[in-house]
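Sequence design from tokenized structure. All designs in this work follow the same two-part layout: the structure record, then the generated sequence. An example of the structure record is given first.
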């Protein structure tokens, strides 16, 4: 198996370059994930840098671009990728080293949408008080809260590449919509107005890259459509 990895070391490189490694196919089991292949490569070359943590598709730390598609290496089977694999860092982010990118702007957009419930009553400071929902109201949140913040969606979005400082990106907008549709939240109008700008949600052209890239099977494009509809009817 031939694995080409885009590498960059800020201490010695002026720009990224590609490096090719080779692994004997017999050392790669049929059920091996790409992360296991990367770990084998790092045994050959300890300088190779990439992120990983839970190795179960839960933490979202090992997002990368593989053969042109964003994915999590820990839940991507290696052998179906073919005999030649090209691995790049997630697009649209500054590279820290090799496959590790600086995601601060991604996290800042997430913080900016205030991804927490804002429910207020006269007894809002009473910790014994519950904010109740019907089963039907709760069911509306399915598909909105399962995001693991891997950034596979946002880094596959041309609108995010072109305007990373302005366009929140699919992950942040998915999180915003989660609270817009929450029956307990009282800041719906404020949330919608924060997105009602040409350089914000209306940068989205719904090309579906984000939905195709999501390793959890979520649909950020649909959530953005829902937000646009809510803005038009607020």
């Amino acid at each position: 198996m031939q694995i080409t990895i885009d590498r960059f070391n800020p201490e010695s490189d002026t720009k990224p370059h590609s490096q090719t490694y080779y692994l004997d196919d017999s050392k790669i089991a049929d059920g091996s994930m790409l992360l296991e292949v990367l770990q084998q490569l790092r045994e050959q070359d300890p300088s190779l840098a990439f992120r990983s943590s839970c190795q179960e598709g839960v933490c979202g730390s090992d997002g990368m671009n593989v053969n042109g598609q964003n994915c999590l290496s820990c839940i991507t089977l290696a052998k179906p990728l073919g005999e030649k694999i090209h691995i790049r860092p997630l697009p649209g982010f500054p590279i820290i080293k090799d496959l590790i990118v600086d995601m601060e702007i991604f996290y800042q957009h997430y913080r900016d949408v205030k991804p927490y419930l804002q429910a207020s009553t006269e007894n809002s400071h009473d910790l014994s008080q519950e904010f109740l929902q019907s089963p039907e109201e709760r069911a509306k949140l399915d598909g909105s809260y399962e995001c693991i913040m891997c950034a596979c969606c946002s880094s596959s979005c041309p609108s995010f590449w072109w305007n990373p400082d302005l366009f929140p990106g699919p992950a942040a907008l998915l999180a915003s919509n989660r609270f817009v549709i929450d029956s307990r939240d009282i800041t719906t109008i404020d949330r919608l107005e924060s997105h009602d700008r040409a350089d914000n949600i209306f940068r989205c052209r719904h090309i579906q890259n984000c939905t195709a890239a999501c390793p959890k099977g979520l649909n950020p494009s649909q959530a953005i459509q829902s937000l646009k509809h809510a803005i038009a009817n607020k």
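The helical segments are 34-44, 104-112, 135-139, 158-162, 170-180, 188-195, 209-213, 220-232. We note this feature because it recurs in several other targets discussed in the main text.
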